[in-house]
Give the backbone structure.
Amino acid sequence: MNYEAVIGLEVHAELLTKTKIFCSCSTEFGSEANTHVCPVCLGLPGTLPVLNKKVVEFAVKAGLALNCDISNFSKMDRKNYFYPDLPKAYQISQYDLPLCKNGYIEIELSNGEKKRIGLTRIHIEEDAGKLLHENVDGSLVDYNRTGVPLIEIVSDPDIRTPEEAYLYLTKLKSILEYSEVSDCKMQEGSLRVDTNISVRPVNSKKFGTKIEMKNINSFRAVERALAYEIKRQSKVYENGDNVIQETRRWDDQKGITEVMRSKEEAHDYRYFPDPDLVPIIISDEWREEIRRSLPEMPEHKKARFIKQYDIPEYDASIITSSKPLADFFEKCVTEYASAKTISNWIMGEMMRLLKETGKEIDEMPIKPHQMASLLKLIDKKVITGSIAKTVFEDMFNTGKDPEKIVDEKGLKQMSDVSQLREIAIKIINDNPKSVDDYKKGKDKAIGYLVGQMMKATRGKANPQLANKLLKEELSK
Amino acid sequence: MELYELTIHEIHDLLLKKEISAVDITNDFLKRIEDVEPKVEALLSKTKENALDEAKKADAMIKNGDINDLTGIPVIIKDNICTYGIKTTCASKMLEDFIPPYNATVIENLNKDGAIMLGKANLDEFAMGSSTENSAFKVTKNPWDLSRVPGGSSGGSAASIAADEGAFALGSDTGGSIRQPASLCGVVGMKPTYGLVSRYGLVAFASSLDQIGPLTKDVTDCAIVLNAIAGYDPKDSTSVNNVRLDDYKKLLNKDIKGLKVGYAKEFFGQGLDEEVKESIQSSLKLFESLGADVVEISLPYLDYALAAYYIVSSAEASSNLARYDGIRYGHNASQYDDLVDMYMVSRSEGFGKEVKRRIMLGTYVLSAGYYDAYYNKALKVRTLIRKDYERAFKDVDVIVGPTSPTVAFKIGEKTEDPLTMYLADVYTVPVNIAGLPGMSLPCGISNGMPVGLQIVGKYFDEGTMLNAAYAFEKAFNFNRKPSFKGGNNL
């Protein structure tokens, strides 16, 4: 029996407003515990929430970028439950009248096919605090995060494979970054993903029982977790059993999901409209004003890059996949004329190093002007292409200027003819067989000899000059 | 006449003429408090040192010519209004040691004007009650008869003014909690239109119904205090910003010829005490004699107001009081097994019976499967009641009737059956449901106890309402003071 997966994703993204959703505390990440708090976000007796207009603006922006209908009338509701990270014992969220509805994201599958994933809704809500259990007797709570504004983006259950889930998430992240409403840093918690998945026999119209997995900490891990669940659930059905509706935890180390400590019956959140807040009215004029303020979206930027910088679609696709990457590229182009060269370096060496070190582009210390300097050093033949790769890696790790690295490590290309001639003679003397091959007409042998010269000079020899001098000496 | 018997405007005149200082006044009131508190027990805390500091500051202000209506005037604050650095307990074990790190907006306003806080007044726990018997700490006595209740939930505020422990008090009114105790204690008490006075710093009971308001010795004082506390507050999203604020004192001009005064026939049904009824009917005749047109109106949905009120207020209260979990402030249990147990023990120990009753009621009406039948339905009834009033106000300018169906009852008389107590609010509750302004002032005596007349105005038309009260007050001339008789302390 063949099973297909039915997958829905709920993404929470922290909005990049300077202050919290209902008070004027800072939303800055990483500060000392309980330093960005006030009576309002601490839920002290007698305090009241006041909605931050920028939060609404950012949420509408995200909704427009994600092709949603923006509600003219929406409201805030209270979601009531008890937990130490929730000071008021209710979260102010939106229940039945969210800000945005009926959007979509288009993804491109590996076979080139385009697929639309629907978005059910986007709503605004406040974040809760953070609990710490390690190295303490009991638990500690940090309320810096309470009241940080979130948008919750709920997809339709249109996703059918783990690959589609991964593509959906990367596209969503890219659009949110481009809209400048969130920095989407999973490692800082500004982007969180919950997944729902069930399986059913292919062509069945009924839905199977779904399970929920919360807070998986990378897009690839989401992909892995979903793949595992599809196998697990299919096996359960094959054995004639039923899948139990529950919340499971993905263990990336072990590569399995486990039942989370089972909660008691599902929470009854007793939603009701928050009487401390008034309804939110988005006029057509305001909505259009926000639409006009939307920055250039990935699709447009890609098309523009192709045209403006004359780079192939493949390159443009990769470079515009993330806004920081696209911005880096464009800044480099203002300092160095050949866009294609920059693009090659980005897609080649830079992406390789980013992947290896697991860094994000904005954690990479190389500045656009340094990139340009490096390329100019190659052009001026101060260093060879292969040495440049070493320099680049050093720049990536230290942020130093390329000129400095070249100086410190003595990496300048050797172009002194007499110096190189000496080395060429030595290489010829050391490699009689290759010399013989060359004299017998094997042109490839010169490549080997040039290689030996590069090795002897640790890559610094000017390869064209090396080639020329070797040929000269060989013809003597 | 003693200093402590004077009204705000009378004390102000003395200060203006420099016949007396703010420190003098404060000392006089502080002594009065020491004299009568053992009998009345209206206060949960006294702020003597603070008061004298504030009095000195007020005198400095006055010396600089910086004097307004409330400078140097002593005030009593209900203990559910947050006062910076001063315990705010809501008469609950749950907040027994809570010291707010900030002031309610109304307190900031009074501080700016140079008013002098003498103490925090007793109330029914978390403002839930109609007799102040639900306080976790003490029972306040009615100064007119110490064996009777002062009403509630602002019983301490009302009793303290009736007993001349302050020149005015602030209370809060969710279902009648300013007006009913004012009626039972023979003072003036007023609830503004919802949204006129900031709720920031008022410990929330029912967010869509709560309002802070004044309790005073006369209508002029009431207008003065309203001037000081009314107005837009950006910290309160339900505070109105597009309403022209009047100088309420200037609108008191006595002439009410042609004023259309309505009374609802539904007021005079079962449960209304005969003598109270007679006082009200006499009051209507007095309005007529002053040139007003007294007209009968109908408010058919009034019958459902009490039920709608208890559903809506309990639902909101169950959510507003959920934050009292013992983690950041308040009572925390010492013995418990785990997190859930800690919540349950702390809250069971910290809250009194009536509060727990309403939290359970409120949780129930919001729960899955019941929301539509109760809460949602109550909200719709609310709209019907609002429409009743809107219809009536097309024909009349103010609506007049009894504040309370009875005069003050005996301590312990209604504590057996909660529903009996709830019926005490039957005339005041519809006003909160509709969000209209309402006030009570004395209009008679029955068996030695004061009777209160309720006047309700149109939205944001406090001026007309206060003026009608002012004209009545001048003509009726209540001029009676409590005698502190009865009770155990004699």
Remarks:
- The longest strand of chain A covers residues 114-126.
